[in-house]
Specification:
The protein is of the alpha/beta class. It is 44% helix and 20% strand. Strand 2, helix 2 and strand 3 form a beta-alpha-beta unit. Helix 1 crosses helix 9, helix 3 runs parallel beside helix 4 and helix 5 packs antiparallel against helix 7. The protein is globular and about 50 Å long. Bound molecules: adenosine-5-diphosphoribose. Adenosine-5-diphosphoribose binds next to helix 1 and helix 3.
């Protein structure tokens, strides 16, 4: 049976997600955007690329939500990206309206879909999606942790001159500057990071990871990161469609796990065909727990601003 994934927002992250997904030949793809002609043009271009790499999926662009009919997964990337000097939180009010419409419209055509949210501020937008759609928590997952952890993995691999495949990092918490890179649980081929790296180098990597999105916004001047967020989306889609039970850091709705409830928050989450299968709970020490609690306060403030 063919799968169908619709991506709402055909901008940098949306179109790049389609690119990574098409390469994996996971599903037929639909790109929806408000800009006339743009999703159609990008989809046609991508469709025309596929003979070269021998992948058989259909890629359709539209300005109309009807095209999303019967989707297994809806990815929401529609919204404004950051400009230099802006935090992800500055996007809240504008993006909330855009995400609300995207959820309401897509649900009419795909009542069983699983939602993957990328639009920032991520944890608040995922919360909004669940509430607006009246969805069970299994069906709404925010993408943040794979990206933040991948950034940290890249920095560690560059520092030590080892393969990225040997570097395992776990960044939890809200998707903002208060995110929590867990250095004790992160490791290089099994050796914990706080053993393999001098304290000052490790601290520098943690800081760079926390500000990783801002570093790219500052360099690009207009727009924000898209390759890494988009490939993270592709990994989540693959985990769900192939029912892999893959454990990745992701933003999910907590109901008491880690002592937190009624918020979306980055934790290790097992993803399978139903969406969220299980939240994995790490044993945390006092300072890790405190850092997560501080990050949770930040996310809760944003969620309160939604006034749902
Ligand atoms: N419906 C559909 N698409 C919309 C709507 C809407 N109501 N409003 C805006 N869009 C589209 C824009 O036309 C644009 O093509 O969303 C797209 C967003 O693309 P970009 O501006 O390139 O932004 P991008 O880098 O993809 O980031 C999108 O993801 O990572 C987050 O912080 C980022 O919130 C931002 C979002």
């Amino acid at each position: 049976m063919r799968h169908k994934v619709s991506i709402i927002g055909a901008g940098m992250t949306g179109a790049t997600s389609a690119h990574w997904l098409a390469e994996r030949e996971l599903a037929d793809l639909v790109l929806v955007d408000i800009v006339e002609g743009m999703p159609q043009g990008k989809s046609l271009d991508l469709q025309e690329a596929l003979p070269v790499i021998g992948k058989d999926v259909s890629v359709v662009g539209s300005n109309d939500y009807e095209a999303t009919e019967g989707s297994d997964i809806i990815v929401i990337t529609a919204g404004l990206p950051r400009k230099p000097g802006m935090s992800r939180d500055d996007l809240l009010a504008k993006n909330a309206e855009i995400v609300r419409t995207a959820v309401e419209e897509t649900l009419k055509h795909s009542p069983e879909a699983i939602y993957i949210i990328l639009t920032n501020p991520l944890d608040a937008m995922a919360y909004l999606t669940m509430k607006v759609g009246d969805l069970p928590r299994e069906r709404v997952i925010g993408q943040a942790g794979i990206l933040d952890s991948a950034r940290m993995r890249a920095f560690v691999a560059m520092e030590l001159g080892v393969s990225v495949e040997n570097v395992h990092c776990y960044v939890l918490g809200g998707h903002g500057d208060s995110m929590v890179p867990l250095t004790r649980h992160s490791n290089v081929a099994g050796v914990p990071l706080d053993v393999i790296l001098p304290a000052d180098r490790l601290e520098a990597i943690v800081e760079r990871t926390r500000k990783g999105g801002g570093e790219i916004v500052g360099l690009l001047k207009s727009g924000s990161a898209f390759y890494a967020p988009a490939v993270a989306i592709a990994q989540m889609v693959e985990a769900i469609l192939k029912d892999k039970n893959l454990i990745v850091p992701a933003s999910v709705y907590l109901q008491g796990e880690y002592g937190l409830k009624d918020l979306f928050f980055g934790v290790p989450a097992q993803l399978g065909r139903q969406g969220l299968v299980k939240v994995i709970e790490y044993e945390l020490n006092e300072s890790e727990r405190k850092a997560l609690e501080a990050s949770a306060e930040h996310v809760k403030t944003n969620i309160a601003k939604l006034a749902l």
